[in-house]
Amino acid sequence: MTNPQPEVEGIRLQKVLAEAGVASRRAAEQLIGAGRVTVDGKVVRQQGTRVDPDVVEIRVDGERIPSKRAVVYLALNKPMGTVSTMSDPEGRPALSDFVADREERLFHVGRLDVDSEGLVLLTNDGEAAHRLAHPSFEVPKVYRAVVSGRVASDLGRVLVAGVELEDGPVSVDRFRLLDQTGQQAQIELTIHSGRNRIVRRLLAHVGHPVQRLVRVQLGPIRLGRLRPGDVRQLNRHELGALLDLLDKPVSR
Questions:
Q1: Residue 162 and residue 56 share a domain
Q2: What are 54-98's pLDDT values in tens digits?
Q3: SS3 (DSSP) at 162
């Protein structure tokens, strides 16, 4: 009597790709055969290769493919007047109000003050939430603001060079003037600092108090056309980019 062969651990690579929404299983086999799939940086051409998608890094044409795990990542467009916490002892609207139908215990990534609007990420991956929110991780954030006053032509240069606030220096990575009408302007800036009310304080310091502030991007995730109060799941491309961001070393 022959001994049964031990079961090979893992899931067939083409099945992982199909479940991730990359392609049908047959099309996934063609991708593998064409050498367009890598596992932990090595091209895999062998059909039937088994992998653990929660452990290895899989890419198709260089784009990272997230595993089909029970981890949830959501994008929320936080409306003005909502506090950036999952609950509020004062009874104000909170982030949990918009995901009350979900069973997972969710953590928020990216605080916005109560008067600001825009993109907040929600996830049940507590470690990822902590890492993305940690100041040393320096996740770039893109804001659009309506500000008072006429914007000088050199404001972008001043902000990129940096200014000194009461709690230390701060600078922006990029600045754009979107519109100027009379004594009001629309601007866009990218900043990686996560200090409290940093955008409002920075713009007030240079003479342009904020009238409206919307965060339109957090790391690789864009707000897009998501309406205030609406929630959506991140798509495969966004998840792959987010996983790449999480793999980057933390700044010291």
A1: no
A2: 889 999 999 998 876 667 899 999 999 999 999 889 999 999 999
A3: coil
Among residues 81, 97, 119, the alpha carbon closest in space to that of 227 is found at 119
In a domain, 92, yes or no: yes
Interhelix angle 126-133/236-247, nearest 10 degrees: 70
Determine whether 61 is an active site residue.
no
Read off the tokens for 145: 């603001």
Q: What's the chain's Rg over C-alpha atoms?
A: 22
Domain harbouring 146, CATH code: 3.30.70.1560
Catalytic residue among 40, 52, 113, 115: 113
Nearest residue to 196 (alpha-carbon basis) of 162, 150, 154, 165:
165
What residues contact 7, with CB distance under 8 A and at least 6 apart?
none
Domain boundary at 26, 49, 65, which?
65
pTM for the predicted model, two decimal places: 0.79
Both 97 and 211 in one domain: the answer is no
The domain total for the chain is 3
